[in-house]
């Protein structure tokens, strides 16, 4: 799902905030301007296709086309600046309560990427009031409900897709939700079965299916199947930010540190990969580990200076695993838990609670896991340290059934049902 990730995924900021920060930096530097030593010095890397506010489209169709392209660029690259460009393109309609449907849908996606889930839900509710058969709105809303841990609402939206999209889109949506509610093995089996029967699957949809299967396999403890699914997802389309991040996390958990650093070397422009590269470098005790950690500190410090910083699970992970500040990490993880309740969010709360010696702070997380029957071998092991009875899957091995077809998480625009 879109990231989700989670994740840490894309903590975008409005373009205005970036401009204010830039102006402030320029003003403070006037007394002693920086002069590069040569023309080879890179002062900043500007994404291709950057537009200024003065050049933003004036008509609705051009504006929404440009904004949609910018949101897609943010999804692929993980660069939050594109979200600011998208907001700028929608400038004349951005704050309008009666904005037309295309604007409402894109605005919801921007809020989703910025982790402003309640604002995104308001827009998605309005989109579905304007067009009850809008599959994209329903799919995006299901993704947000899943991230929030509202599985009943997510399942309702997934079921609502049945008459609007191809069966594979609906079953993928349902599989994600049911796999988090005590039915992981069965969800995996059904999704594999339907995937194997599908003909001519669109590449991005194939990637989505494989990422769902990889996630379920990982939580059930079947590393071999998970790696196969990640491999297919990575080859289905050019890697996007979410796919790279979730695969890097999988590699870190398996202590495949050299693969993580190689991944970062291929995609050094993906800022969120820096945390994973730093963790891998520290584990291998390589010479540049300290430099990477310092770069990470500066990155978070810059985010905090903007004034709208909200702790994420990645920030909690940075505090715990890089800075060794267990208490601060737990506080950050608990703040994040209020809005994001994916397995990775639960893991960092429990890990930080154990490290800080405040295991009682993880009680709400343990309760959430038990009440939903969430199956995850990683969480089961951690909860055992809290002396909290976990929900353990009856079978820790999902049967991969691979590979009969060639091969956040973003929600792809579904094809209409035939």
Detail the topology: elements first, then pairings.
Blueprint lengths: L14 H14 L31 H18 L3 H9 L11 H13 L3 H14 L4 H14 L2 H9 L7 H12 L5 H14 L5 H18 L2 H14 L4 H13 L3 H10 L6 H12 L4 H17 L7 H9 L4 H12 L5 H14 L6 H10 L4 H9 L33
Can you walk through the features of this model?
The chain is globular, with a radius of gyration of 22 Å. Helix 2 (60-77) runs parallel beside helix 4 (101-113) and helix 6 (135-148) packs antiparallel against helix 7. Among the domains are: 1-17 and 60-165, Tetratricopeptide repeat domain (Serine Threonine Protein Phosphatase 5, Tetratricopeptide repeat); 310-387, Serine Threonine Protein Phosphatase 5, Tetratricopeptide repeat (Alpha Horseshoe). The protein has helices at residues 15-28, 60-77, 81-89, 101-113, 117-130, 135-148, 151-159, 167-178, 184-197, 203-220, 223-236, 241-253, 257-266, 273-284, 289-305, 313-321, 326-337, 343-356, 363-372, 377-385. By secondary structure, it is mostly helical. Helices cover 61% and strands 0% of the residues.
Task: Please identify the structural class as seen in this structure.
Answer: mainly alpha
* Uncertain ranges: 1-46, 391-408, 412-418
Order of SSEs, N→C?
Answer: HHHHHHHHHHHHHHHHHHHH
DSSP strand content? under 5%
> Would you state the CATH class of the domain at 1-17 and 60-165?
Mainly Alpha
Count of beta strands: 0
N-to-C terminal Cα separation, in Å? 25 Å
Tally of individual helices? 20
The appropriate CATH architecture of the domain at 1-17 and 60-165 is Alpha Horseshoe
Helix content: 55-70%
Major beta sheet summary: none
The name CATH uses for the topology of the domain at 1-17 and 60-165 is: Serine Threonine Protein Phosphatase 5, Tetratricopeptide repeat
Q: Give the radius of gyration.
A: 22 Å
Principal-axes geometry comes out as globular
Oligomer: single chain
Overall mean pLDDT stands at 84
Instruction: Supply the CATH superfamily name of the domain at 1-17 and 60-165.
Output: Tetratricopeptide repeat domain
């Amino acid at each position: 799902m879109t990231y989700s990730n989670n994740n840490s995924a894309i903590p975008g900021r409005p373009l205005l905030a970036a401009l204010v920060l830039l102006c402030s930096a320029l003003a403070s530097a006037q007394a002693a301007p920086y002069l590069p030593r040569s023309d080879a010095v890179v002062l900043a890397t500007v994404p291709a296709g950057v537009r200024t506010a003065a050049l933003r489209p004036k008509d609705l169709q051009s504006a929404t086309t440009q904004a949609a392209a910018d949101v897609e660029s943010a999804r692929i690259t993980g660069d939050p600046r594109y979200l600011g460009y998208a907001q700028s393109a929608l400038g004349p309609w951005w704050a309008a309560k009666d904005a037309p449907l295309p604007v409402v849908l894109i605005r919801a996606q921007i809020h989703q990427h910025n982790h402003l889930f309640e604002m995104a839900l308001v827009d998605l509710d309005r989109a579905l009031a304007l067009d009850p058969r809008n599959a994209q709105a329903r799919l995006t809303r299901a993704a947000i409900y899943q991230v929030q841990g509202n599985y009943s609402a997510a399942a309702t939206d997934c079921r609502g897709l049945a008459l609007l999209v191809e069966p594979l889109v609906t079953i993928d949506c349902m599989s994600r939700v049911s796999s988090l509610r005590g039915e992981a093995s069965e969800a995996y089996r059904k999704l594999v079965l339907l995937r194997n029967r599908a003909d001519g699957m669109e590449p991005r949809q194939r990637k989505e299916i494989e990422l769902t299967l990889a996630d379920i396999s990982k939580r059930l403890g079947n590393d071999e199947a998970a790696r196969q699914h990640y491999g297919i997802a990575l080859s289905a389309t050019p890697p996007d930010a979410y796919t790279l991040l979730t695969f890097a996390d999988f590699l870190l958990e398996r202590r495949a540190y050299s693969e993580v650093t190689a991944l970062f070397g291929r995609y050094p422009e993906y800022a969120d990969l820096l945390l994973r590269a730093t963790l891998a470098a520290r584990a291998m005790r390589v010479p540049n580990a300290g430099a990477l950690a310092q770069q990470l500190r500066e990155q978070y410090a810059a985010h905090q200076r903007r004034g709208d910083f909200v702790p994420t699970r990645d920030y909690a992970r940075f505090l715990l695993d890089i800075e060794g500040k267990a208490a601060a990490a737990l506080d950050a993880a608990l703040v994040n838990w209020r809005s994001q309740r994916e397995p990775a969010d639960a893991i960092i709360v429990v890990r930080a609670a154990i490290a800080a010696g405040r295991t009682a702070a993880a009680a709400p997380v343990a309760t959430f896991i038990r009440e939903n029957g969430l199956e995850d071998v990683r969480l089961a092991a951690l909860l055992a340290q809290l002396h909290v009875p976990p929900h353990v899957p009856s079978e820790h091995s999902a049967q991969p059934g691979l590979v009969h077809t060639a091969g956040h998480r973003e929600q792809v625009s579904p094809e209409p049902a035939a």
